[in-house]
Amino acid sequence: MQSALLLVPDLSLILIGWLLVRYTSFDRQFWSGVEKLAYYVLFPAMLFYATSRAAFDFSSTPAMLGLAVLTTGIGVILGYAGRWMFRPDPLDFASGLQTAFRFNGYIALAVAARVGGEQGVALMALIQGCVVPLVNVIAVWQLSRTSSVSVWRELLRNPLILATVLGTAANLLGLQMPEVLAMVLGRLGSASTALGLMAVGAGLQLTGASVPYGIVAWWTAVKLLAMPAFAYFAARYFPLTQLQLQIAVLFASLPTATNAYILAVRLGGNGVLVATVVSIMTLCAVITMPLWLALIM
Phi, psi (5° rounding) for residue 164? Predict the structure, then answer.
């Protein structure tokens, strides 16, 4: 019960976003702008602030990152297995595969802050900086046969990766930012959580379009059950601190990324299908994430 209550504030913000887009004048176009603001400005500020100030335990941090990468690899393999189990339409598979292993960065940082404060955010930021290039390469590669988008250009322009790399570099070099700058970044980071989570809620949509429910259920089970189960049981073989274990399992339990829909549309995929999968996973995570959190707290 305490674990569920820990997530209530963040889940409530998602619900508020869902209500606002449906019952007020703040339509989807408005929330699209909010999501861009959070993605390109607020969350990078939060990531840089957290990683530049964190006290990392570099004796065990590589183990946490290794577990996160290994868990993501399990998600990729199981996601691909759906092709032979359900034999979906090739375009549907290319579009939806990414939902089996990508993760929602807005929820990730909000939950990490709830569990571990600034240190938790910093650890989650390191995982993001390590895993985001991997999942983006796989997702873009799967869809790139119908597009001329450069995978490497997309990665080099990713603001979350850049902020994490720069913040970690500043930390390792022992650079101290001026107090005024630290306060500004802290304020921007504080705004990112609320706006990002409300944008997630505003983006939820369950359409009446034809959906291959078999493989959608499989991808949902992979992302919300198989990946966190693997991380939880494999963690005992890694030299992790308690907080690192918690962050690694929480990372594995996250629903898929909301911008999976944007990527599918940009690269000529089935955007309607991906939007539906994102919504289903986010709603199911309301039940599954508190259960995983209860196991690791």
Answer: -65, -45
